Inverse folding.
């Protein structure tokens, strides 16, 4: 991959505010996500890319890339092209991970939708950014996703798949339902994968080669603590380099395994988790669709994970779980604790009881894709 980095000097603007610059010892990567993944496959194709404990899916990096291409070609076949917005409304499932890389393969813009959204929030997100295709799980916990989509787009029940014209969702054309048995008006995810035939896949390399690292590739909605959620737009370069930098800060090594119980819809999961693993040929271990302390501990034990991510309350929930002592966490070394202030007593327990002697703390914002600052593995508590 071509490598380049800015040589612009740090400056102090006339308003007196300073700009902070990190180390430039290693240049930033000048790559798109497809070229990045292709290099990962070249270097680490035989290594295990992902393990989904709940579904039993286990892929090598080579197998993962093939599935990504099938989905990318399938999306092309239903009319999704470069620049189109593709929403994903689902918990942590294999299809989410495939969609993350398949949309980037063809230059479509992935729109992360919070699994906790209700109907009003869904409508806001879909209309705000003009989502053309929505990949959606049928339900999650007490949320009936398809019922909420049907409430916003009752026209779905009487239209052919891919030809939706909904008054309240004027840009939405296609709904792709996870699972094999779609509701009327929806494609099934399996059908879209099946449409990714070799003739369509043959177009992928030409499409990917025309992409630019500075192309917008991802829209993530902020929490909206100061008003309505904002759609932060990120590029290939943004998230690829953030993933590499955070992986490097954790000193991840090829063949290690990172447990990812944090949500994919957030940068924590998809950038600091999925993409960071790809950076060094590390295995993504996904305990389940949502965080469960026992299932996370079981995944760490069974897959001999070397790193684990979480917000402070997740680490506390694992440490305080009544079965904590029955799981072996001695393989752990590092990970990221973030998302809220990380108390020193909790950090000491994570280091002492979970064996995460090189745990790091990260700080940032969705708009910075997301990490701006990260502690070193040997920083004092």
């Amino acid at each position: 991959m071509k490598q380049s980095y800015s040589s612009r000097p740090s400056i102090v603007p006339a308003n007196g505010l300073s700009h902070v610059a990190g180390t430039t010892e290693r240049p930033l990567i000048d790559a798109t996500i497809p070229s990045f993944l292709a290099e990962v496959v070249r270097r680490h194709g035989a290594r295990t890319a992902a393990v989904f404990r709940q579904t039993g899916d286990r892929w090598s990096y080579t197998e993962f890339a093939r599935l990504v291409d099938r989905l990318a070609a399938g999306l092309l076949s239903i009319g999704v092209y470069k620049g189109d917005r593709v929403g994903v409304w689902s918990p942590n499932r294999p299809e989410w991970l495939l969609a993350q890389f398949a949309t980037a393969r063809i230059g479509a813009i992935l729109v992360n939708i919070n699994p906790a959204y209700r109907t009003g929030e869904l409508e806001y997100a879909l209309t705000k950014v003009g989502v053309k295709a929505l990949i959606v799980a049928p339900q999650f916990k007490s949320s009936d996703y398809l019922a909420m989509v049907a409430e916003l787009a009752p026209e779905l029940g009487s239209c052919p798949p891919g030809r939706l014209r909904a008054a309240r969702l004027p840009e939405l054309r296609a709904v792709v339902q996870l699972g094999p048995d779609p509701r009327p008006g929806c494609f099934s995810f399996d059908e879209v994968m099946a449409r990714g035939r070799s003739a369509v896949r043959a177009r992928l390399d030409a499409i990917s080669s025309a992409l630019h690292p500075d192309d917008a590739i991802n829209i993530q909605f902020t929490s909206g603590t100061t008003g309505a959620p904002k759609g932060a737009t990120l590029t290939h370069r943004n998230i690829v380099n953030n993933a590499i930098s955070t992986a490097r800060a954790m000193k991840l090594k090829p063949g290690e395994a990172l447990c990812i119980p944090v949500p994919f819809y957030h940068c924590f999961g998809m950038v600091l988790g999925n993409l960071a693993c790809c950076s060094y040929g590390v295995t993504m271990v996904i305990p389940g669709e949502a965080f469960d302390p026992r299932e996370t501990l079981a995944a760490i034990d069974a897959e001999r994970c070397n790193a684990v991510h979480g917000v402070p309350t997740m680490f506390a929930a694992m440490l305080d779980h009544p079965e904590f002592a029955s799981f072996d966490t001695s393989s752990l070394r590092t990970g990221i604790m973030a998302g809220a202030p990380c108390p020193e007593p909790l950090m000491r327990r994570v280091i002492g009881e979970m064996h995460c002697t090189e745990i790091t703390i990260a700080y940032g914002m969705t708009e910075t894709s997301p990490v701006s600052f990260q502690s070193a593995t040997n920083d004092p508590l």
About this structure: Residues 1-11 have pLDDT under 50 and may be disordered. The radius of gyration is 21 Å.
